[in-house]
């Protein structure tokens, strides 16, 4: 249950991204600065945390031993995740991006067969491909059905350009984030904690953010003071707090794909938190009865996800206890 709770709090802090990105776009801030400044600002905070925990040298050794993998999967997990989200903010409102982002629930389940699981027995080490968690996929579809209801009123009013430039990048991000996160978990094999992994991926993705920053500086100029402060807030709230909470939650269940799918499904609550934030700070229209029904369906799907995985854990524990007693 603890990973689910951590996932929910991560969703709350992640939702800040959608609301503030919408605010920055409304005030004329460029999407490149929204993306690159977030990760640049994250580095000193994470460096301080990891240094004070005495884990900095271990992180650097791990990164030195697997340079190409760190660069590749950090580019996928952070670069192909956040840059497309910020780009989409230039073409779509925050609620639409947050809603489309929930495709990551299905994406996290669909990429499961790309990973191997290692089982150690007395005689041998068995490596086999992960199976698609059909039960988790079914629960995820319930949540996505709720998301679809929330967005239904709005999708009929968007243009083709909004669909193309506002939704396609979010779909890329929805698959890139869980893929990069899981590949890094697979690479680290529990040797690094969540703080180390977030710092390592931020440092490894830094070349991308620096290149984008130089391009933005030469084309659109420096970011405004307001955008700089807003991006700093996003970096702390979403980049540090939310990412660390989410990575902690996924680390706890990294060897159990159904539970991992349940933790990733907690991110569906981002659309609810983002909707509340936009109502409070951007004065958007209150959701229709259809959208409210979607919210109820999302929460119901989350409750079923959590309950099913809790029951599954209890059954496994009971079977283990019976085996030991026998």
Automatic annotation (TrEMBL):
Family matches, as InterPro entries: EmrE
Transmembrane helix keyword on record: yes
Sorted UniProt keywords: Membrane, Transmembrane, Transmembrane helix
TM ranges: 31-50, 70-91, 97-120, 132-152, 158-177, 198-217, 229-249, 261-284, 290-308
Transmembrane helix keyword on record: yes
A Pfam short name: EmrE
Protein's recorded name: Multidrug resistance efflux transporter family protein
Source organism of the structure: Planococcus dechangensis
């Amino acid at each position: 249950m603890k990973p689910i709770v951590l996932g929910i709090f991560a969703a709350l802090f992640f939702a800040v991204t959608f609301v503030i990105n919408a605010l920055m776009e409304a005030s004329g801030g460029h999407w490149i600065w929204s993306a690159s400044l977030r990760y640049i600002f994250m580095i000193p905070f994470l460096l301080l945390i990891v240094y004070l925990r005495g884990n900095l040298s271990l992180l650097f050794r791990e990164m030195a031993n697997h340079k190409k993998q760190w660069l590749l999967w950090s580019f996928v997990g952070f670069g192909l995740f956040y840059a497309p989200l910020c780009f989409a903010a230039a073409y779509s409102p925050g609620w639409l991006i947050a809603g489309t982002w929930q495709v990551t629930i299905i994406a996290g389940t669909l990429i499961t067969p790309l990973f191997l699981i290692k089982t150690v027995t007395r005689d041998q080490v068995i490596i086999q491909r992960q199976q698609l968690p059909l039960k988790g996929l079914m629960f995820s579809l319930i949540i996505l059905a709720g998301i679809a209801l929330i967005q239904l009123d709005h999708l009929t009013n968007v243009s083709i350009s909004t669909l193309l430039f506002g939704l396609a990048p979010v779909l890329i991000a929805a698959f890139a984030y869980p893929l990069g996160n899981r590949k890094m978990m697979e690479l680290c094999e529990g040797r690094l904690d969540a703080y180390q992994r977030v710092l390592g991926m931020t440092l490894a993705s830094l070349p991308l953010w620096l290149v984008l920053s130089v391009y933005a500086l030469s084309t659109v100029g420096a970011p405004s003071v307001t955008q700089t402060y807003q991006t700093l807030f996003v970096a702390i709230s979403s980049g540090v707090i939310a990412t660390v909470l989410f990575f902690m939650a996924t680390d706890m269940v990294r060897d159990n794909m159904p539970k991992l799918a349940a933790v990733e499904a907690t991110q569906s609550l981002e659309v609810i938190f983002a909707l509340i934030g936009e109502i409070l700070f951007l004065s958007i229209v209150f959701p229709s009865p259809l959208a409210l029904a979607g919210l109820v369906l999302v929460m119901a799907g989350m409750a079923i996800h959590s309950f099913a995985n809790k029951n599954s854990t209890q059954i496994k524990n009971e079977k283990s206890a019976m085996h030991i007693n026998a």
